[in-house]
Amino acid sequence: MIKKILVANRGEIAVRVMRSCKELGIKTVAVFSDADRKAKHVRYADEAYHIGASPSSESYLRMDKIMEVAKRSGADAIHPGYGFLSENGDFAQLCEDEGIIFIGPSPYAIHTMGDKITARQTMIEAGVPVVPGTKEKITSEKKALEVIQNIGFPVMIKASAGGGGKGMRLVKEESELISAIRGARSEAKSSFGDDAVYIEKYISSPHHIEFQILADKFGHTIHLCERECSVQRRHQKVVEETPSPIMTAELRDKMGRDAVAAAKAVEYYGAGTIEFLVDDNLNYYFLEMNTRLQVEHPITERVVGVDIVREQINIANGLNLTYTQEQIKQRGHSIECRIYAEDPENNFMPSPGIIREIVEPLGLGVRTDGYMYEGFEIPIFYDPMISKLIVWGESRDEAIHRMKRTLDEYKISGVKTSISFLKRIMECPDFYEGKYNTHFIEKNLDFLLSKTNCDKHCEDIAMIAAFAEYMSKLKKIQPTTQFEVYYNKWKDVGRIKAAMRI
Amino acid sequence: MIKKILVANRGEIAVRVMRSCKELGIKTVAVFSDADRKAKHVRYADEAYHIGASPSSESYLRMDKIMEVAKRSGADAIHPGYGFLSENGDFAQLCEDEGIIFIGPSPYAIHTMGDKITARQTMIEAGVPVVPGTKEKITSEKKALEVIQNIGFPVMIKASAGGGGKGMRLVKEESELISAIRGARSEAKSSFGDDAVYIEKYISSPHHIEFQILADKFGHTIHLCERECSVQRRHQKVVEETPSPIMTAELRDKMGRDAVAAAKAVEYYGAGTIEFLVDDNLNYYFLEMNTRLQVEHPITERVVGVDIVREQINIANGLNLTYTQEQIKQRGHSIECRIYAEDPENNFMPSPGIIREIVEPLGLGVRTDGYMYEGFEIPIFYDPMISKLIVWGESRDEAIHRMKRTLDEYKISGVKTSISFLKRIMECPDFYEGKYNTHFIEKNLDFLLSKTNCDKHCEDIAMIAAFAEYMSKLKKIQPTTQFEVYYNKWKDVGRIKAAMRI
Amino acid sequence: MDFEAIIGERTAKLTLLSRTDKILKVSVDGIIYELDCVTTGNGVYSIISEGKSYDIDVVQGLSNKQFIVNSDMSEYKVEIVDAESRYMKAMNKAKGFDEGNIIFCPMPGKIVKILVKVGDTVEKGQTMVIVSAMKMESEFKASKEGVIKEIAVAEEETVSGGQKMIVLE
Amino acid sequence: MDFEAIIGERTAKLTLLSRTDKILKVSVDGIIYELDCVTTGNGVYSIISEGKSYDIDVVQGLSNKQFIVNSDMSEYKVEIVDAESRYMKAMNKAKGFDEGNIIFCPMPGKIVKILVKVGDTVEKGQTMVIVSAMKMESEFKASKEGVIKEIAVAEEETVSGGQKMIVLE
Question: Do C107 and C160 share a domain, yes or no?
Answer without folding.
Answer: yes
